[in-house]
């Protein structure tokens, strides 16, 4: 299970933690519906407008290189939202047979035109695909939105459809300050902890693919949403 940052080229950004905390309890309820408010409402309730801008293209190239993807290969993006990464993967690998799974009907109905007809509505706990049917299965900042047992089931499903060829990125923190920032910012996560907790969960699920962390770094006035490569330097996978 290699630890690798496949989102190193995602742009960094600062987040206003103070503003996010206002009305957070209500906003968590709204965000967990994964509807219009979460994707295209205010920043307090989710993305604050999730629109295609091409930022996933360099990430798609890195993913394609890492998994040696070629024409005819099948790839699954679990929790693909509006299918932006799905679209860019097909753009960088001609002939790639890319599919997405998304729980939000709103996201599917408002997906990128190039992803239409390629996104299945469903849960990561029960992937409606045959065992070993994908050359790679991606799951970026998704499974932590499930309870612990359901999270284990989702990781098992990723392993089932793409044995040894999964990529999972999840929320994590290394100390109390990062945990506090995480709790003040993140709206939808149900399962979270330090990297050691995730290592135990992956082991319990029998997961043999790759993984990485999304970590909120603490700033006196703002927070920087970051993914820590090996808990050394940091890049942002965005949300």
Give a quick rundown of the structure:
This protein is of the alpha/beta class and 239 residues long.
Tell me the CATH superfamily.
Answer: Vaccinia Virus protein VP39
Question: According to CATH, what is the class?
Answer: Alpha Beta
Query: What does the oligomeric state look like here?
Result: single chain
| Percent of sequence in beta strands | 15-25%
DSSP helical segment count: 9
Low-confidence stretches: 223-239
Report the sheet with the most strands, covering strand number, pairing sense and barrel closure: 8 strands, mixed
- As for the number of domains, it is 1
SSE order, one letter for each helix or strand: EHHHHEHEHEEHEHHEE
Structure summary, number of beta strands: 8
- CATH 2nd-level architecture: 3-Layer(aba) Sandwich
Q: Give the CA-CA distance, first to last residue.
A: 25 Å
Structural class of the secondary elements? alpha/beta
Q: Output mean pLDDT.
A: 89
Describe the global form: globular
Strand line-up across the major sheet: 1-8-7-6-5-2-3-4
Q: What is the third-level CATH name, the topology?
A: Rossmann fold
Approximate helicity band: 25-40%
The value of Rg in angstroms is: 17 Å
Please give a structural write-up.
This protein has 9 helices and 8 strands. α7 (148-161) links the parallel β5 (136-140) and β6. The chain has an 8-stranded mixed beta sheet. The longest helix has 14 residues, at 148-161. The protein has helices at residues 17-21, 24-31, 36-40, 57-66, 84-92, 105-109, 148-161, 176-185, 195-205, and strands at 14-15, 74-78, 97-102, 119-121, 136-140, 166-171, 210-218, 223-226. The protein has one domain (14-231): Rossmann fold (3-Layer(aba) Sandwich). It starts with 13 loop residues before the first strand and ends in a 13-residue tail after the last strand. The chain has 239 residues and is α/β, with parallel strands linked by helices. α4 (57-66) crosses α5 and α7 crosses α9.
